Each structure stands twice: as C-alpha cells, then as structure tokens.
Amino acid sequence: METETGKYFEKNHKKLESVPDIEQQWAMALDKCRDHINFRLKKRTVFGAHTEARLGENPLDYYISYSYDAILSGRWEWKDKYTLSEQMILIADSTISTEVEKVQTKKAKENKVVYDGLDSLFYLQDPLPDELDMVKEILINKQISVIVESINENSDFAIFWECVKEGMKSNEIATFMEKTPKQLYKLREGFIKKIKESPYFEME
C-alpha cells in the first residue's frame, strides 16, 4: 500500500480538523464504505482482479485501507461537495475499476451495452462473439469507458450503475439506495441524460 504524502495533504487535514466529532464521522464513513465494497465485490473475490493472492491481503481490507489512506495521505482530494463517506466510496470504486483494467489483457470478458428503446441501459457480462467486427468492439469498449468517466464524480450515479450491472430490479435498487420510486426515476433520468451527452452514443 502506498504511503507517500500527496499534494492534497494539507487541504484534506484542514478539512478533517474542522469536522466536529471526526472520530465518529470516520467510523460512519468506514462502515458505509465497507458495505459498498462488500456489495460491489460480491462473488468476485474467488478469482480475477480482486483475489487476496493478487492484492496481497483481504480484498475488503485492501480497498477500505486504500480509500482511508488516500484521504489521510493527501493522494486524493476530499472535495467539498462530498461527505467523507461519499469520497471514500468514490476512491474505492475508482481503485476497484483500476485493478480490473490491470488484468484485462488477455481473455477478459467484454462488456456490451444493450439499449431498450431510448431510455434504458442494461449491462451484460456475456462474452462478445469471436467474429465481432473490430470497429464495433472498440466502440462498445469506448462507450463503457465513457459511462465510467461521465458518472465518476456523482456518487449516486456510480452506485446506480453498479446496481444495474448487478442486474438488480428497480425496486431492489430503490431499497438499496434508500430512495422512493419517484426519486429513483429522477435519478435514472439524470443518469441517462448524463451518458447521452457524449457524442459516442450517437454512433452505431
């Protein structure tokens, strides 16, 4: 685990010092981050990017420690628009994605976005056909990266995307995110609007 001091060290510590009951806030943030990582890594620690053998320690401990240390060391900025728990979750999500990218060099499964009309996005983990045209393959991969880039700074969008990838139904997502059906609908609309801002999704 990296321990060097980052450029946001002073900024983050000034912000931490200004938070009342910071120990309690850390405890809450760690709990929320742990729950989120547990959800995201479900059934994904037996083999692949998130194994204990590859990371050098328990995957849950690895990502929690990384997020915690990233803020304390100043390697990641704790942005004003996020709570401590939200910032930790964003760091964990980004780090998990980075570890996946590191092992996608050989026969990793390809990701495919399937459109149901103009307003639904579903995530499939089925491998793409071997005969898939190279241009189409590049486009699909680019679309996936565009989604990740577009939602990177919105924790609700990031969590919603993870739920979609897990194949959760609307009522399950609403329960998990502690939102009413109306709130989830608005979130979903905002998510789709954000994604469609990219010109890549106008291509076929």
Structure description:
The chain is mainly alpha-helical and 204 residues long. Helices cover 59% and strands 4% of the residues. It contains nine helices and two strands; from the N terminus they run αααααββαααα. A two-stranded antiparallel sheet has the order 1-2. Strand 1 and strand 2 form a beta hairpin. Helix 2 packs across helix 4 and helix 4 crosses helix 5. About 15% of the residues have low confidence.
Terminal-residue CA separation? 42 Å
Total beta-strand segments: 2
Helical content, roughly? 55-70%
Strand content: under 5%
Average residue-wise pLDDT: 76
Q: Would you list the SSEs in sequence order as H and E?
A: HHHHHEEHHHH
Overall tally of domains = 2
Largest sheet: 2 strands, antiparallel
Rough shape?
globular
Can you tag this structure with a few keywords?
204 residues; mainly alpha; 2 domains; two-stranded antiparallel ribbon; 59% helix; globular
Summarize the structure.
With 204 residues, the protein is mainly alpha-helical. It has nine helices and two strands, in the order H-H-H-H-H-E-E-H-H-H-H.
